[in-house]
Amino acid sequence: MANVKLILREDVQGLGHAGDVVDVRPGYARNFLVPEGKAVLASEGRLREVEHLRRQIAEKVAKELADHRALKDRIEKLGEVEVRAKVGEEGKLFGSVTVAQIAELLAGRGVELDRRRIDLPEPIKTAGDHPVTVKLHRDVNATLRLKVVPEE
Length: 152
Prior knowledge:
Blueprint: E1 4-8, E2 21-24, H1 26-33, E3 39-41, H2 44-77, E4 80-85, E5 92-97, H3 99-108, E6 118-119, E7 124-126, E8 128-137, E9 140-150
Parallel strand pairs: 4-9
Antiparallel strand pairs: 1-2, 1-3, 5-7, 6-8, 8-9
């Protein structure tokens, strides 16, 4: 089956950036990209409109970038975020600190964030200081300082 040409309306990880014309499988277009508003079909008329669409997308991306930079500043101004957990011998946790718990902590401090933006390769299983990267935008990453301390 032939691929479908689409114009991306926003960045799609692993596919392209907003305004790009891409070829994808029909099912991916029909079931995900188009219904979610992430892309539009690239007809001849729309391909001519691509420049106008790119200007609109550039304005939207610039606004989002400013919002993400402000959020980055808010996250980094939090300083060190403390997590209390049960700790055994040698500083190892009973259980672990997960992305969901970190998102919950941030929400408690007034920073609403989708847990999928928190980049934690594996759950934290030791006490101490841990830098956690928060991917807000392809150009904006915030670093959260997480300190895991024993419960008393």
